[in-house]
Amino acid sequence: MGAMISRVAAGAVAAGVAGGVYRALRRRPRPGWSRTNYAGHTVDLYAGPAVALGAAAGAAVLPLPPRTRTAAALAVLAAGGCGAYDDFAGADDPRRGFRAHLTALRHGEVTSGAVKLFGIGAAGLAAGALLKERPVDRILAGVVIAGTAHLVNLTDLRPGVATATVLALGTPGLVRGGLGAAPMGAVAALAAEELGERTMIGDAGAHALGAAVGLAIVAGNGRGGLAAHAAGVLAAAVYGDRISGLARRCRIGDVLSGR
Predict the structure, then answer these.
(1) Which of 8, 24, 38, 64 is least surrounded by Cβ atoms within 10 Å, i.e. has the fewest?
(2) Gap between the Cα atoms of 216 and 57, Å rounded
(3) Origin, by domain of life (predicted)?
């Protein structure tokens, strides 16, 4: 009973913080925080930092070991920060997918996508090192955390799709240890605003939520489960990169990326 109460409390805190930050940002609109979505509607990006901070706050109130709490704060806030950087610095960059950003890097250009790729990857590995003891498990954990962050971002194609992904992937983590309660509470708080096409979570929100879900997966699995999840997110990354390349050639990259 105590464990269930703590998970409900974590979800409530995450929802409260996400909703509060979102409302505070909307009360004082900032230039440059609006985008045109797939349907041609103008939406704001305030949901991104709101759900990132909500997920971090929700994890912080769970009765977790200090190393797990540190890992959660590191992974979620770093993923959200890197995503926010790409939301703004990469807003006019037509390149999509790992291959395009790595190609630019080989030619000496550091794109916002490359910063996001390496920043979230490093944060995932650091969080994995805090959560697991053996080197192999630490690497697998890092891949799962960073890969899940990327996976949720890949699903941010239309309003509500990334939200549904977080809720689906976070449910097992809600049962195993409770870490899934934080991202689920944060994203649920703003689901109506997103479905109403008033806001979008953007890269900041998608990556932060995905990292939080990845943490829940890592916390609830041993080596076998980590290996299976790592294989899954890597396959999704390869597939997503191919779709991004096709989108660029067809000139529909902005639609597929949710921009």
Answers:
(1) 24
(2) 15
(3) Bacteria
**pLDDT tens profile 218-243:** 999 999 999 999 999 999 888 876 65
- Counting the structural domains of the chain, the total is 1
pLDDT per position as a tens digit, 189-225:
999 999 999 999 999 999 999 999 999 999 999 999 9
159 three-state secondary structure: coil
Phi/psi of residue 108, nearest 5 degrees: 90, 5
Over residues 130-188, the pLDDT tens digits come to 999 999 999 999 999 999 999 999 999 899 999 999 999 988 877 777 899 999 999 99
CB 25 within 8 A of CB 200: no
Where are the alpha helices (H) located in 35-134, listed in sequence order? 47-60, 66-89, 98-106, 112-131
Q: Which of 164, 137, 136 is nearest to 151 (CA)?
A: 164
Which helix H or strand E contains 109, and what residues bound it?
Answer: none
Written as six digits, the tokens of 83 are 């995503």
C-alpha 58 chain-centroid distance:
15
Paired strand residues for 34 = 44
